[in-house]
Amino acid sequence: MKRCLLIGKNGQVARSLYTTLNNGINTKTEYTSSKQDQSSLYLSLDDMDSIRSCFEQWDAPKDSIVYLAGALTNVEKCEVEKEECRKKNRDGVIAIAQECKRKGYKLCFFSTEYVFGLEEYSGGRIGPFTEDDPVSPPCYYGECKAEAEKAILEIHGEYSLILRTTMVFSWEKDGLNFLMQYIRHMRSWKEGERKFLIPTDQISTPTYAPFLADAAVELMNNNARGIYHIANRDLLSRWEMLQIIAKVFGFSESTVLAAFSPVKTESMGQKAKRPLTAGLSVDKLIKAGIHVPSFEDSLLLAKNLSV
Ligand SMILES: NC(=O)c1ccc[n+]([C@@H]2O[C@H](COP(=O)([O-])OP(=O)(O)OC[C@H]3O[C@@H](n4cnc5c(N)ncnc54)[C@H](OP(=O)(O)O)[C@@H]3O)[C@@H](O)[C@H]2O)c1
Asked: Which residues of the chain fall short of a pLDDT of 50?
């Protein structure tokens, strides 16, 4: 029986991972929560004692797998609450890598496209970025993730897999991912109401959460190591993503034009800089034998879950 520990129980990525792992043969998955409850092990990324005590309690055989999908993911909050961001997105991750090394566990860490993008602001490199491109985080969230990646590779590199992903979406009725936000907005929008602002100069590679989870587990099971990018294969602006979503889910062009407003990122008054002409290259993932679906194919799967 293979043992797995999933950190980040209630997150969007963790929920998909849990489904994939539960479908696996001979796999037992336990999980942690950052809130104390009866059904899971307590682990908070900003509480070193809880990390140590969780790894004392979770006594699994060597080679068991830790999936680290917990994080502070609110990019704007990370820019303001830097200490909290550093504790959760860097220091806690480093402590978990050290525990994994001590106990001989394999580690799968989820990272982000936001480790790239600063150079474009001064006329430099743009995406899609490969695993070999040097990092250049545009904001504090990306900076802490990049530092965590580097530390993991130094501490436990031969036993770790770092998966960078971006713009994760799935069908979740009350979900906050961009697909669900766009659909709820199109469904409820009425004449005269506030338009949803879409930064058209942000170009990326959206990622279907169930595909991300399946690919992560397959790579771990195949003993992949180092850094991989996981995303759907289309490089799209957010406005193009919206057009494809509207087509797949049956909303008219007039609804899109009435309910959404194309804007430039700089006009949105955000504190954290975003990657602009970015996206993740998935050539390495394809070479590893993983089938990478198109955005539209994944939307069709999401739509099947919506009925
Ligand atoms: N969603 C995206 O578009 C996206 C893009 C790029 C990278 N990623 C990366 O993918 C991973 C998962 O993201 P997600 O979208 O699933 O995020 P999410 O929906 O915001 O969930 C993050 C989870 O982290 C856990 N968490 C929060 N504070 C914690 C703490 N102090 N200690 C331990 N766990 C804590 C929470 O789970 P509990 O409260 O249940 O423990 C929370 O549900 C993250 O590493 C993120 O950086 C996501």
From this structure: none
